[in-house]
Amino acid sequence: MNLYPVRAIYMAEMARTRRTLLQSVVSPVISTSLYFVVFGAAIGSRISEIGGVSYGAFIVPGLIMLMLLTQSVSNASFGIFFPKFSGSIYEILSAPISYLEIVVGYVGAAASKSILLGLIILGTSSFFVPLEIAHPFWMLTFLVLTAVTFSLLGFIIGIWADGFDKLQLVPLLVITPLTFLGGSFYSIDMLPPFWQSVTLANPVVYLVSGFRWSFYGISDVSLGASVAMILFFLAASLATIAWIFRTGYRLKP
Amino acid sequence: MNDPIITIDGLNKTYEGGFQALTRVDLTIQRGEIFALLGPNGAGKTTLISVVCGLVNPSEGHVTVDGFDSVRDYRQARERIGLVPQELTNEAFETVWNTVSFSRGLFGKSPNPAHIEKVLKSLSLWDKRHNRLMTLSGGMKRRVLIAKALSHEPRILFLDEPTAGVDVELRRDMWNVVRGLRDDGVTIILTTHYIEEAEEMADRIGVINRGEIVLVEEKAALMKKLGSKQLTLQLHSPLAELPPSLAQDELSLTADGFELVYTYDGRQEEEGRGISTLLTQLEQAGISFKDLHTRQSSLEDIFVDLVKERS
């Protein structure tokens, strides 16, 4: 692997984040903080503890996961979509670099941004609620794996999208609803039995559950199921990207 | 000169919708030359360049760049190539310095600020290095694209319509830059609509029409072979008709009888009946003239004739 092109793409993407600091960093931090104020402090004070954890603290992993999924997808999809939109993708495609190097550059930058945001929000949440992280290694593992996996998904969306509306389609209509319904704000034990079974078909449940377990040792599904689900997503995304580059789908006529 | 740097062999390209953009293209570009590829809109110029540069997958055929297969050995092939695209495509919010440095890194080269400085100065971009691309004029953006293509020190430079929409002064500046690159040993392939550009700069001309290479020729030889010349003689007194001793296909008399027009190319001279023979014949026939002027057909005339002939 030639590291110069990877570094060039990575640094260019990170520079874009610095240029758009308000949109890239400040905006998600503020919106997540609003969730803490509304659900954690205002409404949460009237909700009893869940699994021995205060409601405000209980929603922290879910909120971080919500931000992680949406930001990973948005950052990565925009990162590759914009050169396509502006036409400057010609330079990437004519450069002496492998597909792997292109993906590592773009996805690495998008995942880095999301991880950084996740850690900022984790820090911010400690101002609102008392936090504990029971399994720091697993917390970081879930954070990194989720950011990378959903950045890969974002990269796929960025290649697939042929307009800004499609770029927003998946984050708004798929990722956000699945995250809201995936136990970010509640334990699935709180649902009627039928809806509990339905919810288990939502893949985000496994991600939120695993991530929450790394904080408080409580989960809706087993750790093994959570790890298996994230690895399955990772493998599926990698396979799709390999197919895109092999066929030149929406990149090379 | 036979030192090919690019060899295109049996190249076909059919797009998904069934449009055949290239048909059995065979072409060899010699090391160090300026090769101009001419052709009308939609002839296949950009597709041909795109296949060589890796932007479009060929349907059939092979491209070899400095001995490396453009698909199998894409790293070695592409690192030798710089491409200036037709469209003004760039990252609007980046600065000139950053975008040119980015291109160098993208092509796998270690940072070299001295080289970037040299390139920017040679293109009169040094003063604009901290400017965002969105603030530059069209001509300056075009220069930035050239700077990006030169950032990794390519041995081959593709210029796809490099001076489209560029004013005359800037166009001449660019020609000087291109000549300087050729002097440094860079092979240059340019596509253009400006025949004047090809005529001014190219060593060899290729004409592509409807996806087929119609002709490849040294520019001088092409001009000699296909370019006709006209000698017009203004007579002292009008002629009613040409004397029988002067009757030949190449010579005609204007309606008012005051002008003799002699149309010729390289062949007449070789056959021993060129201008000097004509002038001798005129003297012998007692025909005198008070003035003369010549006109040589331009590459544009040749190109238009060729394309018309093949359509």
Automatic annotation (TrEMBL), chain A:
Query: Is Ribonucleoprotein one of the keywords UniProt gives this record?
Result: no
Matching InterPro entries: ABC-2_transport_permease, ABC2_TM, ABC2_TM_bact-type, ABC_2_transport
Tell me what topology the record assigns in the membrane.
Multi-pass membrane protein
What keywords sit in the KW lines? Cell membrane, Membrane, Transmembrane, Transmembrane helix, Transport
Q: Where are the transmembrane segments?
A: 21-44, 50-69, 140-161, 167-188, 200-218, 224-245
Does the keyword Cell membrane belong to this entry?
yes
Subcellular localization = Cell inner membrane; Membrane
Record domain ABC transmembrane type-2: where: 19-248
Q: Which NCBIfam families match?
A: PRK15066.1
| Similarity section | Belongs to the ABC-2 integral membrane protein family.
Q: Please give the PANTHER family that the UniProt record associates with this protein.
A: INNER MEMBRANE TRANSPORT PERMEASE YADH-RELATED, TRANSPORT PERMEASE PROTEIN
Name the UniProt record assigns to this protein? Transport permease protein
Give the originating organism: Vreelandella lutescens
Query: Which taxonomic lineage does the organism of this UniProt entry have?
Result: Bacteria, Pseudomonadati, Pseudomonadota, Gammaproteobacteria, Oceanospirillales
TrEMBL record, chain B:
Q: What is this protein called?
A: ABC transporter ATP-binding protein
This protein's encoding gene: yadG
Return any one Pfam family short name. Answer: ABC_tran
Entry keyword Nucleotide-binding = yes
Superkingdom assignment:
Bacteria
GO MF term set: ATP binding
Question: Which keywords describe this protein according to UniProt?
Answer: ATP-binding, Nucleotide-binding, Transport
Q: Any idea where the ABC transporter domain is?
A: 6-235
Taxonomic lineage is: Bacteria, Pseudomonadati, Pseudomonadota, Gammaproteobacteria, Oceanospirillales
For the keyword Transport, the answer is yes
